[in-house]
Amino acid sequence: MAFEYAPAPESRAIVDIAPSYGLFIDGEFTEAADGKVFKTVSPSTEEVLSEIAQAGPEDVDRAVKAARKAFEKWSALPGSERAKYLFRIARIIQERSRELAVLETLDNGKPIKETRDADLPLVAAHFFYYAGWADKLDHAGFGTDPRPLGVAGQVIPWNFPLLMLAWKIAPALATGNTVVLKPAETTPLSALFFADICRQAGLPKGVVNILPGYGDTGAALVAHPDVNKVAFTGSTAVGKEIAKTVAGTRKKLTLELGGKGANIVFDDAPIDQAVEGIVNGIFFNQGQVCCAGSRLLVQESIQDELLDSLKRRLTTLRLGDPLDKNTDIGAINSEEQLSRITSLVEQGEAEGAERWSPACEIPSSGYWFAPTLFTNVTQAHRIARDEIFGPVLSVLTFRTPDEAVAKANNTQYGLSAGIWTEKGSRILAVANKLRAGVVWSNTFNKFDPTSPFGGYKESGFGREGGRHGLEAYLDV
Amino acid sequence: MPTTAHTAHALADVTASDSTLRRFLHGLPGVDAVGLEARAASLGTRSIKTTAKAYAIDLAISMVDLTTLEGADTPGKVRALGAKAVHPDPTDRTTPATAAVCVYPDMVPAAKEAVAGSTVKVASVATAFPAGRAALAVKLADVHEAVAAGADEIDMVIDRGAFLAGNYMKVYDEIVAVKEACGTSARLKVIFETGELSTYDNIRRASWLGMLAGADFIKTSTGKVAVNATPANTLLMLEAVRDFRAQTGIQIGVKPAGGIRTSKDAIKFLVLVNETAGEDWLSNHWFRFGASSLLNDLLMQRQKLATGRYSGPDYVTVD
Amino acid sequence: MSERLTVFKTYKLYVGGKFPRSESGRVYEVTDKKGNWLANVPLSSRKDARDAVVAARKAFGGWAGATAYNRGQILYRIAEMLEGRREQFAREVADAEGLSKSKAAVVVDAAIDRWVWYAGWTDKIAQVVGGGNPVAGPFFNLSSPEPTGVVTVLAPQESSFLGLVSVIAPVIATGNTAIVIASEKSPLPALSLGEVLATSDLPGGVVNILSGRTAEIAAPLAAHQDVNAIDLAGADAVLAKELEIAAADNLKRVLRPQPVDEVDWSATPGIDRMTAFLETKTVWHPTGSLGASGSSY
Questions:
Q1: What confidence tens digit (pLDDT) does each residue in C251-286 have?
Q2: Do A424 and C286 touch (CB under 8 A)?
Q3: Chains B and A share 3 or more Cβ pairs within 8 Å
Q4: Which of A171, B31, C21, C37 is the most buried (most CB within 10 A)?
Q5: Residue A8 CB neighbours (<10 A)
């Protein structure tokens, strides 16, 4: 008799979503100047969750002005006082983490297991970490009394809505900047709940402003002449547009963009853990992760053994209701993203790669994509070159460490890589040669507020997290 | 069910000599401790509710090797234990019997008598349990006595000293000898005392050593040392039996023992079984819990599911 | 209506997470600046000091091994707990140091903020004092700070609370455990701090607080072979020299007292009080080249 897990849904009653939300400017929720609104839906059910005010250029201007006004006092506060605001925010996030996890799962479609065990703990930890820096900037290695830049315009993606907000807002406020942040159009809710957290923390008005909207809202924000700092996380294509927009200005820019991370498995790897790392690397958050290990580079001598283990493991993945505590694979964030994944996968098949998925039932409504594995992939295939941003793994082989490194580096991206071997010197030698901003060995997708994160090459520039993450928000 | 026949299998040449055995064991893939423990912890977050919980609790009860291994054991104590194993919850006869009672060899006759006519097996620890520090002849005599008294299962301890000294062949030969002493009637569980082997690499090697030597079950520990069954070491052993079957076609059972006290813990172990070795192992022929206090917690949880109210220790028997 | 008679508190030591009296059964009288009786407090013995070392050593592995993030959360929790008892501490500090209510409140607020300052340091100090070293060879080389171990702390004699917090927090922020000898004349804020630490998720034994004659307790601790370091903040020049000589026997790390007229506990601290009780560990590991061919990309 099979051990069937009964449904174990997290209660959504813990979160109270209002039928509509305004823009958060200067400490108040307000309508958009032109009255525009858009709907945000739950990607697992296509249910409309709320109607959100859509910020236009006039609203952007108002928000930047509010942030500018707040900057004077905020930047003049002693660091120890700014620290205490950020500690308060960190604590309130810890207190409300269950509510926020459910909210994030509803709006994003990712499993509650991930929002509960990864997103929310990391969000709180990020604020906690940067809170501590606010009164220690003299010790950060940027000279004595380093100064903030001013108003930061920040545009974040939909894959880790609240975590990306934390990565942007925490270091900005710690260093004395004020912010105008645009969340992604498919996941605006947690940023708007964050506005309420700012209220509970007693944060002075105007220090944090939240402007939901589409790409044009973001474009208006980064182009605004009174913005001193632009931080963007998202696609490489948009990153390049932003780089062009800020060219010739004095705006400081950091970009965290796409990736095509290689997960390199040597024949002396701890196989069972490598399988877990591969699964985590590409199926965490449905593969909608910029640093995903979307290319598996496996040493030819263990290819069969590893793929057998991997396939067996994939059959145990549980796809379905993201609110169910036993769900491993949730919904794809949007219809648009789903069609992009679908089209790249079809190209992979057309180009002759061999497609495999475990048997799994796809729910009838919502946006879903089964975990997918491609074998017989070469560097020439599009699925080995383009960022798919979905639960799709391309498997390539190599014969020697040299070849592994050559293939891993053979991409315009350079965000992440994984190395699996029990041999320490091989880890370090390979890591030395990889052109990637984050290299995980015998693990994957590990994040910590103390650890800098960011890319080489077209994966962007600047680092978020750690002591290094302060630099992006300081006039140094 | 008959004991698995260990005929010549795919790995037969591995045990041809001391050096082939050593090379094989040292050639097994390494275990990354952080990754292993993270996987075990992650499976520990599975939420088993309602019907799944009821299924898991009954399954767990049916997998308990109800154990008493005290210097103060008496026939009376063993009889009471046997009665409890046959009818764990006298107020509810739908409660499954446990898999076995587990006793010292001299208590086997009393145990046999207590469980006569039921499905409950009698398991006996042997081979100078728990330390295993005795001459082979003494260990074998221990086994013979238990088998002669009617033990259905023998729980032997390996010679950890020999294993840690690298004398793998000595450990192997001893298991083979004990297996032979078990004859065709008794199934053999091989206890590694994982807490003393210390590293996960050692636990993986010991698992393969035991399976190669003819173990019917591999078992974590005696319950007599500081670290006994953990989710991580049990997960590792489940990977070993899974991989062994894939290579040889022979299925081996797993028995975590010691330290599993609550229904919640037991259910976590069942999740490990389900998602690592698979549902073929979800019966008491292939998976056991070596435990004493676990049973009462399972019974209380079972009562809670049946009545909707929390039970208390006064509503389960103390045997 | 007659005035309500207050309930006195029995002040006790804080050792291993428990609140024992001195094993010696001795107490001494503590008064305010005007000589009014405040309390009888334990007069700790050598045996109490030894017990405290055992407790601190037992707690060291767990505390040093806790994540820096976890230690930061706990130090911040101490600040939260103190915030809720600031009136009590303001009263005790006012009595101890002869300050007005409002001045004492300022001191207590500064002490609370000091915990917040060090809470933020737990996961940053390694980033400031550690780092990779570009050795001339095919080696990975990383230096990281690690806590020294069990630290005896002679709390400042005058600043009974802000000074006390300023010497305890840096010692434990980095993962050391501490045996603290409270200000001899004004031990009450220190003994009350024990009650706060006990309810802040701080594992028992990480901080152990003794009251009594500083010189009497410090002597065996300075000579104790299972103590790794000593902070002499509360010692005068004569005692400091004596203790430093005793400490040399097992080469304890010694933080000498600052001259009394140079001490300003209200100033923002640097990192010196943390680095005084840190060891640097440097790890080498070969990197080598990728293949026998030695080619590179």
A1: 999 999 998 778 899 999 999 999 999 999 999 999
A2: yes
A3: yes
A4: A171
A5: 19
- CATH at residue B226: 3.20.20.70
Q: Which of A4, A273, A326 sits opposite B46 (nearest CB)?
A: A326
Structural domain boundaries of chain C?
Answer: 27-286
C29 SS3 class: strand
Check residue C14 and report its DSSP letter: B
CB B271 within 8 A of CB B233: no
Distance CA B5, CA B19 (A): 26
The question of whether A256 is a catalytic residue gets the answer yes
Whether the CB of B31 is below 8 Å from some CB of chain A: the reply is yes
Structure-token pair, residue C165: 């917090």
Residues 196-215, chain B, touching A (beta carbon < 8 A)? none
Angle CA(A385)–CA(A390)–CA(A395) in degrees, nearest 5?
50
Q: CA C91, CA A454: separation in Å to the nearest integer?
A: 51
Report the distance separating Cα A383 and Cα B224, nearest Å: 55
Residue B98, domain extent = 12-310
Cβ-nearest to A6 among B31, B50, B271: B50
- Looking at the structure of chain B, the number of domains it has is 1
3-class secondary structure, A409: helix
Residues of chain A numbered 261-320 and touching chain B (CB < 8 Å): 268-273, 276-277, 316
* Positions of CATH 3.40.605.10 in chain A: 12-257+456-471
How far the first Cα of chain B sits from its last, in Å, is 29
B123 three-state secondary structure: strand
B3 confidence band (pLDDT: 50, 70, 90): very low
How far apart are alpha carbons A69 and C8 in whole angstroms? Answer: 53
Strands (E), A149-207: 151-155, 178-182
- The structure tokens listed for C217 are 């307790």
CATH class given for the domain over A262-441: alpha beta
Q: Hunting for tokens 């089964």 — which residue is that? A: A370
Identify all chain B residues contacting A5, using CB atoms and an 8 Å cutoff: 46-49, 52
Pick from A6, A271, A422: CB nearest B49: A6
Nearest to A276 among B39, B53, B282 (CB): B39
| Inter-residue contact A357 to A371 (CB < 8 Å) | yes
CB atoms A425 and C127 under 8 Å: no
ipTM value: 0.96
Q: If chain A, 476 residues long, is cut into consecutive pieces of 10 residues, what is the mean pLDDT of each piece?
A: 92 97 98 98 98 98 98 98 98 98 98 98 98 98 97 98 98 98 98 98 98 98 98 98 98 98 98 98 98 98 97 98 98 98 97 96 97 96 97 98 96 98 96 97 98 98 98 97
Per DSSP, helices labelled H in A79-183 are 79-95, 97-108, 112-114, 120-133, 161-174
Kindly tell me whether chain B and chain C come into contact, counting contact as 3+ Cβ pairs under 8 Å.
no
* Chain B touching partners, 3 or more CB pairs below 8 A: A
Sort residue A385 into left (φ over 0), alpha (ψ -120 to 50) or beta.
alpha
For residue A276, CA distances in Å to A329, A415, B66, B222 come to 14, 20, 35, 30
Chain C residue with Cα closest to A401: C290
Q: Is the peptide bond before B130 cis (omega within 30 degrees of 0)?
A: yes
CA distance A232 to A243: 10
**Residue ranges of chain A that CATH labels 3.40.309.10:** 262-441
The CATH number of the structural domain formed by A12-257+456-471 is: 3.40.605.10
Q: For C98-140, how does the pLDDT look when each residue is reduced to its tens digit (9 = 90+)?
A: 999 999 999 999 999 999 999 999 999 999 999 999 999 999 9
The distance between the two most distant Cα atoms of chain C, rounded to a whole number of Å, is: 98
Query: Which chains lie within 8 Å of chain A at 3 or more CB pairs, if any?
Result: B, C
- In DSSP terms, A373 is beta-bridged to A356, A393
Whether pLDDT at C295 is above 70: no
